[in-house]
Write a structure and sequence with these properties.
Strand content: 25-35%
CATH class: Alpha Beta
Structural class: mainly beta
Order of helices and strands: EEEEEEEHEEEHEEHEHEHE
CATH topology: Metallo-beta-lactamase, Chain A
Number of domains: 1
Shape: globular
CATH superfamily: Ribonuclease Z/Hydroxyacylglutathione hydrolase-like
Helix content: 10-25%
Number of helices: 5
CATH architecture: 4-Layer Sandwich
Largest sheet: 7 strands, mixed
Distance between the termini: 6 Å
Strand order of the largest sheet: 8-7-6-3-2-1-15
Length: 259
């Protein structure tokens, strides 16, 4: 990745900013304050931490990756940070959120669908990747559709592959879709969300992830979607305990140079 200048900032939950040269990508803006209680269909969750960002973080974002409609991924505060000039790639169940601000400049992607975004000397192919958002069939159906994303970033003769898992578990359907791919950077949603609920966990446990990651063999792993909400039941230390030097350690508000 020496041909690219890459920076990553985690704001909390699955909200992050990824900069590649002069390109700026945002993900899943959920910015409610600490102690906000969110009401889901069958349970509640509380935000444990303040979102850690500066206003400039959300300025001039070239495109957003929106995975799904759940309020630990997008909320009434976060959606206002999506500027009308920014391109948005989203699951179709985000329509009810995006109509609050504008209804143009959005591509709703089905699994396997691809779009191309170009800026200066960068060409980015965005592909929607399947997710299975629970550990049994009934809970997965109730949770609804979720997109992961695979980004292929090309500059001259250089290329990097970035996999954003979205909310998924270690399911054969997802692994089959990804077979034969290799990721330079993987941004997985960890935290064993809903581990104590029907059909849980809804996202990777550390143990699940360490099996799943072999599918794409990432060079660098940037784990998010832990700590922020009470729904996330497993501490990140469970993943750190594997002592895998590909797993970078950072906290909410931290900015990393990814090399």
């Amino acid at each position: 990745m020496k041909d690219f200048d890459i920076k990553f900032k985690w704001i909390g939950a699955s909200t992050w900013i990824l900069s590649i040269d002069n390109l700026k990508i945002g993900s899943d803006p959920v910015l409610c304050q600490k102690d906000t209680l969110q009401h889901y269909r069958f349970f509640k969750t509380k935000r444990r931490t303040e979102p850690n960002y500066e206003s400039k973080d959300f300025e001039n974002i070239d495109f957003w990756l929106l995975t799904h409609e759940h309020e630990d991924h997008i909320d009434a505060y976060g959606v206002t940070k999506i500027e009308p000039e920014s391109k948005v790639y989203a699951n179709s169940n985000l329509k009810k959120w995006l109509k609050l601000i504008y209804a143009t400049n959005v591509d709703y992607l089905k699994w396997g669908e691809k779009k191309i975004f170009e800026k200066e000397n960068l060409k980015i192919t965005i592909e929607a990747i399947p997710c299975v958002h629970a550990s049994n069939y009934i809970a997965a159906k109730l949770a609804g559709s979720v997109n992961g994303y695979w980004l292929t970033v090309e500059k001259n003769k250089s290329k990097i592959q970035i996999y954003v898992t979205g909310d998924t578990v270690n399911h054969q359907k997802v692994k089959t879709f990804l077979k034969g791919r290799n990721a330079d950077i993987m941004i997985p949603n960890i935290g064993a969300g809903g581990l104590d609920k029907f059909g849980g966990p809804y996202t990777f446990t550390a143990n699940q992830f360490m099996d799943f990651e072999k599918t794409v063999n990432p060079k660098i792993i940037l784990p998010v979607h832990h700590k922020t909400f009470s729904l996330y039941k497993e501490p990140i230390e469970k993943l750190y305990a594997y002592n895998d030097n590909r797993v970078l350690k950072f906290d909410e508000g931290d900015t990393l140079e990814v090399k």
